[in-house]
Amino acid sequence: MALNIIPSVDPLMDTDSLQEIASIARYVRFGPFHIDRQRQQVYRGGNKLRLQGKVYQVLLVLIHSQGEVVTREQLKQALWPADTHVNYDANVNTTVNKLRQALGESTDKPTYIETIPRRGYSFIGTAEFSHAPFPRQAESALTDDAQAAAAESSAWKAQNADSSKKWLTLVIIGLILVGILLGAGVATLWIAHFNPELRP
Questions:
Q1: Which of 35, 65, 190, 194 sits at a 20 to 30 Å CA gap from 11?
Q2: Number of C-beta neighbours around residue 66 at 10 A
Q3: In 3D, which of 94, 134, 92 has the Cα closest to residue 8?
Q4: Nearest Cα to 66, choosing from 109, 29, 108?
Q5: Where are the beta strands (DSSP E) in the chain?
Q6: Which of 117, 109, 7 has its CA nearest to residue 66?
Q7: How confident is the chain (200 residues) per 10-residue block, as mean pLDDT?
Q8: What backbone phi and psi angles, to 5 degrees, belong to 77?
């Protein structure tokens, strides 16, 4: 079965068209995350995340407007009916923070959700939309390769850190010995200079 992937970034496509296509596609993928819109489930690799209610809705709204600023007012309109009486600002903040926590990112170094000060938020990742499930084999192979590369990198860093520590220790010991020898030499010269009886 051929995978029908709708490119997420098309310079000729306006935002309304992107939202229209995205709303039709059942599957969404960005980074290690997969969304099954029909089941309203989000997965990271093979693990199901608990994104429910407003948190899930915020993710979809941001993805559908990727690269664009989604204002707080737009989020308010998308998440709460007009006759709802809640503290929208606090609820939007809390909901976006829960989403960030679920995606494992921080506001300092955002990977997917960027805060636009005094305006709103922007999805800065790259999402792909598809009518058919994304292939799992390629995904798991990529995950295994990434994990192997990360393990190799960690081992290399640990080895280099140990090696660096050994060299630093040797340098410090060398400097201490040089200092002792210089100190002894200066002391001997000083004593010989001020005590003529000790001169040869």
A1: 35
A2: 20
A3: 134
A4: 29
A5: 5-6, 27-30, 33-36, 41-44, 47-49, 69-71, 113-116, 120-123, 128-130
A6: 7
A7: 42 45 76 90 88 89 91 86 74 89 87 91 91 68 56 64 79 88 76 63
A8: -65, -35
Phi, psi (rounded to 5 degrees) for 179: -60, -40
The C-alpha atoms of residue 132 and residue 34 are separated, in whole angstroms, by 12
Q: Are 112 and 123 in contact (CB under 8 A)?
A: yes
pTM beyond 0.85: no
Amino acid at 93: N
Query: Which residues have a Cβ under 8 Å from the Cβ of 74 and sit 6 or more positions away?
Result: 61, 120
Residue 161 amino acid letter: A
In angstroms, rounded to a whole number, what is the distance separating the alpha carbons of residues 33 and 30?
5
